[in-house]
Amino acid sequence: MSILGLKKKQPKTFKVKVITMDAEMEFSCEVKWKGKDLFDLVSRTVGLRETWFFGLRYTVKDTYAWLKPEKRVLDQEVPKDSPITFHFLAKFFPEKVEEELVQEITQHLFFLQVKKQILDEEIFCSPEASVLLASYAVQAKYGDYDPNFHKPGFLAQDELLPKRVLMQYQMTADMWEEKITAWYAEHRGIARDEAEMEYLKIAQDLEMYGVSYFAITQNKRDTDLLLGVDAQGLHIYSPNSKLNPNKSFPWSGIRNISYSEKEFTIKPLDKKKDVFKFYSSQLRVNKLILQLCIGNHDLFMRRRKVDSIEVQQMKAQAKEEKARKKMERQILAREKQMREEAERAKEEMERRLFQLQDEARLANEALLRSEETADLLAEKAQIAEEEAKLLAHKAAEAEQDRQRFEVTAMKTKEEKRLMEQKMREAEQLAVKLVEQSERRLKEADHLKQDLTEAKDAERRAKQKLLEITKTTYPLIAAYSTPPAPPEAADFAYESASTRLDFKDSDMKRLSMEIERERLEYMEKSKHLQDQLKELKTEIESLKLEEQQQQAGVYSLRNEARGYVQEPVYIPHSNRNSAYMSQSQMAFFEEV
């Protein structure tokens, strides 16, 4: 058998990757599968029943195409890659999203696709509308706004606004987030599906919502134009303006659309109106335009008919599902409210518990302090009791000392009295001595005066005797008697001298007696002065001992009473009362 005659065995399956707006899926498909088989598999996997809005789109060279349901997948111009990539997207858009979109999954897929188109600037949106739509997108993603959870910067990683809007204003990301959060906070209580529906209701009013644009030319002037196909009809735009069409052909006013190679002909129902023709150079684009026109027109006519049993069942189920979800949301809201109230009550109880714990802790601390204080007071009381006993003992000792001091004081008083008596006697003796001294001084003065007078008289007598001797001796010698012999003269002179010497010896003796008496007087005075000094010193020591005894008595009394009083001093006048006068002391000191 020739090897060249054998045919290469074809594989029975091929790989397909389907990308939805929020997931990627891979399937293993049979070679004989048609486009409808793959589409149904994806729809079942996603859980979609409103399949008439969606299709599988793939890329062909510089344009895109939709997978045809009636032809086999591999027979179409799909990429030859493995796996083959398809995008599961909305091919047709409803006129009123709140009436036509029944399933929640359908709303969600539309929401994701329209949101991406707005962010990619495929649908023009004003800055104000962009902020409002972003707030609903945040509500759908994060739920109700909670300032404790949604801190500033929680939207930093989310793409919410078109770049054109961000570049249009000189605002920071924080400023945009603040604006979005202000709207977001007002959407409290809106569920995710409701927020997505509100998003779509706002988006469907945008001029470029659900419009597919194609480049065309007119046959006469070869003018470049744009053809827009949407759920309302066909629209002709200028190349630089996709918002306001120059001419529109609603589906209700179109009688027929014919296609012949590159030429399209739009015939209105009103025969009086002109037929509109336009050209498209690409065959694939022409087929795509034709598919979109047929599909949108079919949906337009379908909306104006009674819903099929399938659609009615879907709407009924959706209504029941919405009612059930609404009830669940209400129950959830009540439970959430009750939970919040319970949490608040719990927080209040915890706060109260913490407060009670703090109060208990403070009470325990106060109790411990009280116990410590009680122990301290008990210890102090014990110490006070011991001190009281000690003080009582000291008081008893003080009383004994006081009694002893009183006895000593009595003795001291007796001694003081005796000393005062001695002092008085000494004073009297001193007075007598002073008087005697004065009398002796007077006598001494008289004696000195008499002595002086006697000396003067003696001197005068001697003088006179000498004079008489000088004058009378020659006369007596001449007239009376013969001159005496020298022995006689000498005898006379010696006699006179003897008499004079006799008088001098008496004076000396008298002076010696006076001096002796003076010395005896001085000795007695000195002895008396020494006795007075000893008496003064003894009085001072006795007085000092008396003061010390009195201070000791006061100190013991104060210790017995629990306090110490300042020492009491005897006034100066009282201290000097027991002593002699200053004049007397001065006299004795002088003596």
How would you describe the shape?
rod-shaped
Order of helices and strands: EEHEEEHHHHHHEEEEEEEHHHHH
Largest sheet, order of strands side by side? 2-1-5-3-4
Distance between the termini: 181 Å
Residues in β-strands, percent: 5-15%
Largest sheet: 5 strands, mixed
Helical stretch tally = 12
Radius of gyration: 75 Å
Structural class: alpha+beta
User: How helix-rich are the residues, as a percent range?
Assistant: 55-70%
How many β-strand runs? 12
Q: Uncertain runs with pLDDT below 50, 5 residues or more?
A: 1-7, 475-502, 562-591
Mean pLDDT across residues: 80
What would you say this structure looks like, in words?
By secondary structure, this protein is α+β, with helices and mostly antiparallel strands. 61% of the residues lie in helices and 12% in strands. It has 12 helices and 12 strands. It has helices at residues 35-46, 97-100, 104-119, 127-142, 163-168, 173-184, 192-203, 283-303, 309-480, 486-561, 572-575, 582-590, and strands at 13-19, 24-30, 54-60, 63-66, 84-90, 212-217, 224-229, 233-237, 247-250, 254-260, 263-268, 276-279. The strands form 3 sheets. A 5-stranded mixed β-sheet has the order 2-1-5-3-4, with helices on both faces. Strands 6-7-8-9 form a 4-stranded antiparallel β-sheet. Strands 10-11-12 form a 3-stranded antiparallel β-sheet, covered by helices on one side. Helix 3 crosses helix 7, helix 4 (127-142) packs across helix 6 and helix 9 (309-480) runs antiparallel to helix 10 (486-561). The termini are far apart.
